[in-house]
Amino acid sequence: MQFRMPRIIAALLALMLTAVPAMAGQVSISAAASLKEAINEMADKFTATHAGTTIVKNFGASGALAGQIENGAPSDIFISASTEWIDYLLNKKMLDAKSRKNFAYNALVFAGATTKKVSGMSDLTKLDRIAIGSPKSVPAGEYAMESMKNSGLDKKLAAKLVMAKDVRECLTYAEMGEVDGSFVYRTDAMQAKKAKIRFVVPEKLHARVVYPMALTVSGAGNADAKAFFAWIQGGEAKSILKKYGFILK
What start and end residues bound the annotated signal peptide (predicted)? Predict the structure, then answer.
C-alpha cells in the first residue's frame, strides 16, 4: 500500500525547508608550515566577522601539500614557500592561473643553541650536525642547499646534514640540541625559545624566499574561498604578516 503524505503536511515541510537560511561554506587552505601562526590568526579574524564560515587548515612542506592536492585532497587555497610547487600544480591544471599572487616574502637564517661561534657560512664547517628541510619537498631546504653550493661548501657539509620533513621540524631539532643549528626562515626563528639567529644567509646566495598563492580549480568556484582569498590580501592580513616578521615587498 503506497503511503501518501497529506497535502497540508507536504506544504508545511516545503515552507520550513525554504525558510532555513543557507549555511555558509567551508574553506580548505593548504599552506607552508612557516605560515602557521599567521594563517591561524587570519582565519580567526575572518571567521569572527563571517558567521558560519569554517576555515580548515593544512600545514606542511610545500612539496608534500602539492602532492596531496594532486592526489585529490580537498583544498581551495594553496600557499607555497617557493614558486616551484605553484608552477607544478599550474602545469597540472589544478590551480586557477588568474588568481596567482605573491602573498609575502621571508629571509633564510641559520639558528641554533650551540655555544660555538657561528656568524657566517664559512663557520658551518666547525659544526658537527646541521638540520635542513629535505630539498625534495621543503623549499627552505632547497634555499639552504643552493646557498651552500654557491658558497662552495656543499661537499664539505654533506656528511653533517640532518634532513627534516619541514622547516618546523628543523627548528625543533635546533631547539632540542639534536643539531648545532638549522637553516630556517627568520619568522620561524622568531618563534624559538632556545635557538637564536646566528646569521642571516646573504640573499645573493639563493633565490628570493617568496610565498606565491592561488585558488585551486575547485576553490575558484567556492564563494567563501574567494572571499577569504581576497581578505588575506587586505590591510588587516598584511598587519598580521608584519607582526610575525614577514616581508611584504
Answer: 1-24
Phi-psi region of 81 (alpha: psi -120 to 50; beta: other; left: phi over 0): alpha
Residues of the chain within CATH 3.40.190.10 domain(s) are 7-105+209-243, 108-200
CATH superfamily of 108-200: Periplasmic binding protein-like II (3.40.190.10)
CB 41 within 8 A of CB 241: no
> Is 167 one of the annotated binding-site residues?
yes
Which cell goes with 146? Answer: 643552493
DSSP one-letter code for 75 = -
SS3 196: strand
Phi, psi torsion values for 179, nearest 5 degrees:
-135, 165
Element (H, E) at 105: strand 101-106
34 is in an annotated binding site: yes
SS3 state at 28: strand
CATH T-level assignment (fold) for domain 7-105+209-243: D-Maltodextrin-Binding Protein; domain 2 (3.40.190)
pLDDT of residue 24: 54
Who has greater pLDDT, 43 or 3?
43
The reply to whether 182 sits in an annotated binding site is no
CB 163 within 8 A of CB 141: yes
Cell representation of residue 187: 619568522
**pLDDT exceeds 90 at position 5:** no
pTM for the model stands at 0.86
* Alpha-carbon distance values, 128 to 159, 162, 182 (Å): 9, 10, 12
- The torsion angles phi and psi of 168, rounded to 5 degrees, stand at -70, -35
